[in-house]
Amino acid sequence: MTALSRRQQNKIERERRILEAALKVFSEMGYSSANMDAVALEANLSKPTLYQYFQSKEALFSAMMLGERDQMLAVFEHPSDRGMVADLLEFSWDYADTVLRPDLLSLARLIIGEVQRFPEIGRAYQEVGPDRLLRGIMDYLQGQQRAGRLAFDDAELAAQDLWGLILSAPRTQALYMPDHSPSRAEIARYLNNGLKVFLKAYSTQPETDLAELARLIGAHSLNQVQHDA
């Protein structure tokens, strides 16, 4: 391993530590109260070192949220050869596993509590989180439309329908009832039904796609049982 590759790996590892520390600080303190000193302390770095990576709290917050977005959109940006239905199911679980994480739910609650006094916080969160995620979903759905797999008049509405159908209710409950975490079975109930409704509404081959979804759900359930055992 060369000295350059070691430096690159160290840089990547340090940036990962910073983003993990930032999420912890933002989720515990809220956006307005969080500061670079607290992030540097949590990451066990000096403040000058932190500023070598991120020039401001705003830049750090954006990078943190973009990292979470990239995780959720990975399957859409790098589709598998298993087909659209498999991509939609994988995205649904990646989305659920991300937005239902306790730290991200805490961050969302704190931002909701701050937007009345600091509307710029809500705009920052919306722009680098939900809005960018929505654009990524739209790009994927439009690609499937061009391939003849989906039919819709408005890509934004179709994308909003997708994430609204799969997880809106359990995420809302988790936001306002922090003592209740939905089980995997409860999440699956919403995801699977949401995808069924989405495919019935937008698929150009609904019967074929619904049959494929049923097969994939069965395989996913079997893998989950084996994992739990």
Automatic annotation (TrEMBL):
Which InterPro entries does this one have? Homeodomain-like_sf, HTH-type_TetR-like_transc_reg, HTH_TetR, Tet_transcr_reg_TetR-rel_C_sf, TetR_C_Proteobacteria
Annotated Gene3D superfamilies:
Homeodomain-like, Tetracycline Repressor, domain 2
Which PROSITE patterns does UniProt cross-reference here?
Answer: HTH_TETR_2
Q: Which domain of life is it from?
A: Bacteria
Which key words are in the record? DNA-binding
User: Where are its TM segments located?
Assistant: none
* Signal peptide bounds: none
Q: Which residues form the HTH tetR-type domain?
A: 12-72
Give the annotated DNA-binding region, as residue ranges.
Answer: 35-54
User: What protein name is recorded for this chain?
Assistant: TetR/AcrR family transcriptional regulator
According to its UniProt entry, this protein's organism is Mesorhizobium abyssinicae
